[in-house]
Amino acid sequence: xxFVEVATTSGIPPGTMKHxxxxxxxxxxxxxxxxFYAIGDRCPHMNASLSMGTLKGTIVTCPLHLSQFxxxxxxKISGPVEAKMEGAENLPPEFQKMMARIAEIMAPVxxxxxxxFPVRIDGTGLFVNV
Length: 130
Hints:
Rieske Iron-sulfur Protein; elongated; four-stranded antiparallel β-sheet; mainly beta
């Protein structure tokens, strides 16, 4: 592992996230009130890009199944939430059956903590140890 420059501090305003790739890893850089954190950008549940999700304080929410992670520790706060598709009852029975099967297959998939990476600021450069 070594520190790699991935962004400038001005390129990630407070309250935002940015996807970067460094050292063969996808990383989500997060700015929480001027303090920067780096967390693996792939959700440990179903591989969605966390940087495309939402950030509230230090909690990032996955855009796919709403799993939540603390960006300061990578700890899972809550697991996935099964979304209900509005109007699904009006879809053909074959499609409803397929959706039920997908939900059945996904139900036992475990959600793990996300990987975190050390961050260093040097001048205006933001470095991540990957």
